[in-house]
Amino acid sequence: MKKLLFLLLRGLKFFYTNITLNIASILTITTILFVFHIFLTISLSVNDFFTGMGNIQNIRLYLNTESQDEIKNFLNKLNNLESIESTTYFTQEDTMEYIRKSTSNISYLENIPKEFYPHFIEAKIKDEYRDFSSVKKLENTLKDFEIVDVASYGEKWIVNFSSLNYGLKIFLTILTVLLAGALSTILYNTIKINLYRYKDEIKIYSLVGASRTFIITPIITAVIIESLISYLLSAAASYLTFFTLNSRLLHNIDIYFIKLPGITTLVFILGVLILISVFAGVVSVKTFLNRMGAINE
Amino acid sequence: MGEKKALDNISFKVSKGEFVYITGESGAGKSTLLRLFYADLLPSKGIVLVSNKDISNITKASIPFLRRNIGVVFQDFKLLEDKSVFENIKLALEVFYLEKNNMENRILPLLRRLGIFSRRNTLVKNLSGGEKQRVAIARALINNPAIILADEPTGNLDQARAEDIVDLLYGTSKAGTTVLIATHDPHIINRYKQARIIELKNGKVIKDSGKQ
Asked: What is the pTM of this model?
């Protein structure tokens, strides 16, 4: 414990001594993380939005009969299906009223008589059957009824949303990998530059019997501090950006699209960043020590 | 084919507390020989025993433990010019995670013994060559090593300073530390005529005064 504390304090001193040299590196890492946060927030928001949009709650059944007996009979059958929670029958008149109410600004609808509106059944799907494959299965079951002309649940939109969401996730994954590579390279090179400045000191430490742990730990500590500062700066900048965007613009026009990442996501990203930093640090120091050459050359 | 051997077919043993000169012309292999003892080089063939331990194939992880028992002094001092005398010696104690008070208790008496106590807070770049070498010796001695290896320790010093340094190292051997000095300076070698002399030429031992 005493040894660890000693090495951590040396790391803190190492960071403090080199802070002016490392400012460029801190700012670069902050910028990279800021860009990542922006894309992550947008991705999370879009995902949330698409999930909401793609949430299939109802299936609408357009019928090829107007016989009330057949419809009543069919409603009974529907209510007995395991995946159906409830059903509502909309007559042509109900449909007309519904559309007129929900599109109050479109006056010409007033001139369309009720005969031109469809009648249909809206079947509410139970929560546990709202996934895409269960809905698809239900659609096939319903299509087998002769009375059903069309079963509709906005499939085309959902498929499009899913593809978009999937594409966005691939984009974010590629971006994450590229940014992780960029971060590792920046950290690797910054550490290397610092190590070259301390080459003589490291050689002397090596001469007097310093272990690799003694040499490596303070440097890794300094890298972690550097990454932590960059992360806090970028997270704060990102939060401020979206908070301002929400409060000053989007919320004023009733758009609640932006969803900020939760604390678990932020801690996870920090964890990954620290892992990348430690990895870059260890590789940088080890390659440096292996290539440092003999003490008395 | 035609590869020059830095050291060839060398075999000798140095006893505890012995004071040995390794001598020979430039390029004879003196420095190479010393580097083998603190594992700055590993032999391509043969065995190197230090304190009865074979270090010919020593692992990187074990090298620090070997070096903590050996003090090394160089012609070019290998000190940090922008640090003070005290800070330079402190480096050798930091690897043992000693506390500041403990470090002071060990460094200050040694500086008094070596006559550089008054210079303890002076930056190394402001010291004379002789003083720098005393600091280097202090760093080598601070952990009470069993062996001191000095590679041309007087090469950058005038005659009087060089003799001072050799006297210091000789005194250390009298206290029980094994001292090996690589030098080609005849004045230094003649100062302690009773000392063992191992002479190298082209990587081979051509004379060993300690051999019966």
From this structure: 0.75
Q: Residue B75 carries which DSSP code? A: T
Long-range contacts at B127-134 (CB < 8 A, ≥ 24 apart): B127/B85, B128/B161, B129/B156, B129/B157, B129/B158, B129/B161, B130/B157, B130/B158, B130/B161, B130/B164, B130/B165, B132/B77, B132/B79, B133/B73, B133/B77, B133/B157, B133/B161, B133/B165, B134/B165, B134/B168
Which 172-231 residues of chain A touch chain B by CB within 8 A? 200-201, 203-212, 214
Q: Does B103 touch chain A (CB under 8 A)?
A: no
Token code pair at residue B25: 């012309």
Phi, psi of A102, rounded to the nearest 5 degrees? -80, -10
The beta-carbon neighbor of B31 closest among A208, A209, A296 is A296
For residue range A192-244, what is the model confidence (pLDDT) as tens digits? 988 888 899 999 999 999 998 999 999 999 999 999 999 999 999 998 998 88
With beta carbons less than 8 A apart as the criterion, state whether B56 and B34 touch.
no
B59 touches chain A (CB under 8 A): no
Sheet holding A148-152, edge to edge: A84-90, A120-125, A58-63, A148-152
Q: What are A54-96's pLDDT values in tens digits?
A: 667 888 899 888 888 999 999 999 999 999 999 999 998 998 8
Enumerate the residues of chain B whose CB falls inside 8 A of the CB of residue A293. none
Residue A227 CB coordination number (10 Å): 25
Q: How many CB atoms lie within 10 A of CB A99?
A: 13
- Note the residue count of chain B: 212
A143: left (phi over 0), alpha (psi -120 to 50) or beta: alpha
Q: Which residue has the tokens 């499009």?
A: A160
Q: Which of A6, A214, A288, A296 to mutate to test the interface with B (most CBs of B within 10 A)?
A: A296
Residue B93 sits at the vertex; the CA angle it makes with B91 and B96, to the nearest 5 degrees, is 125
Q: What residue type is assigned to position B115 of the chain?
A: G
* Total residue length of chain A: 297
The pairing of strands A84-90 and A120-125 is antiparallel
Residues from chain A contacting residue B84 (CB–CB below 8 Å): none
Asked if B142 and B114 touch (Cβ cutoff 8 Å), the reply is no
Dist. CA B92–CA B111, nearest whole Å: 14
